[in-house]
Predict the 3D structure of the following.
Amino acid sequence: MRNILPENRLLTSLIFAAKTFFAFALVLVQVQVSIPAAQADAPPLAPPIGQAAAKQSLQSLQGNVTSVDAAQDLAGQTRVNLNAAHAIANFFDLPPVTGKAQSARVDPLVFRAWLTKAHPDFVLSGSASDASAVVEVAGQWDKADKTLSKLQIPYQHVKASELSPEMLASTKVLIINCAGQIKRDRLQTVRDFVKNGGYLLTTDWALDNMVAQTFPGYIGWNKGVNKKDIYDAEYLAPDPVLAINTVRSAFWKLDSASHLIRILKPDAVHVLITSRQLAGEDPDKAGVLAVIFPFGRGYVLHMVGHFDNNAKIAVGNFLPDSAPAIGISLRQALATNFIVAGMTGKRLPY
């Protein structure tokens, strides 16, 4: 064996250590590259509009409302487990409601407290400081501005005739109150808003008056109406975005002659909340209370019923269907989670 001088031994050791380090680094890089993209934590984007659908968009209906549908291309995208209720922040898996709902006075501060608990980062960061982010279209029956004011979420209140692409350029969430009477020459603006990534919340009679016309073939009115004011409600498949600080079961207030939903495109429309009692009166025996569907890069959430308190007594902050454990109603909590998701750019697992 050859004799190696001490300085040569040191040089040899350094060379060996360097080779070992680079070999380990190469293996580590190969392992990281081999991780499939489907394991990413980011929720999937809404299905984009495909090239074929883009060509179809040139064929307009009356009023320049097109019949283009969003392409359902979900290849390679991950999905959130919609039934993992235990993984949802502040979700209360309550048993079905029984008995009779009791109307109660709910102080406006309760709404703000609910928002703070459900979305503390949103409240602390001041994300709700831009009034142009939320546009509320005046309605004849529903008054979403009352609930937005209690939540202390700034908004811009406009008339339907004022809707324009320029107005909605910086808007993230558009709310169209019941009765949703919007002239057809404004429906294309609403459609383009959602297609380009906007979040649209509609209530009650807006179903037949504008949703079915603006997004034909998704949902429609089956000519059924409710026979009473309060129904049981069950959150079928709560997800980690819209179900934050909500409950599995609660009461749900409806206005008189609310328009019941018929699902026309079950592969795209996701039923969120149903009622067993309402199903008995529904021509379709479905009892659907709330649905959501992606369109282009945005989403449409429609609720049977209103976003405001919808109490028989207009004064006194009465809420006829406040849900146990959360203070406000399930319908208001669901809609608010949707609004916050839109304002913060959070994608939904649909």
Notes: Confidence is low (pLDDT under 50) at residues 1-81.
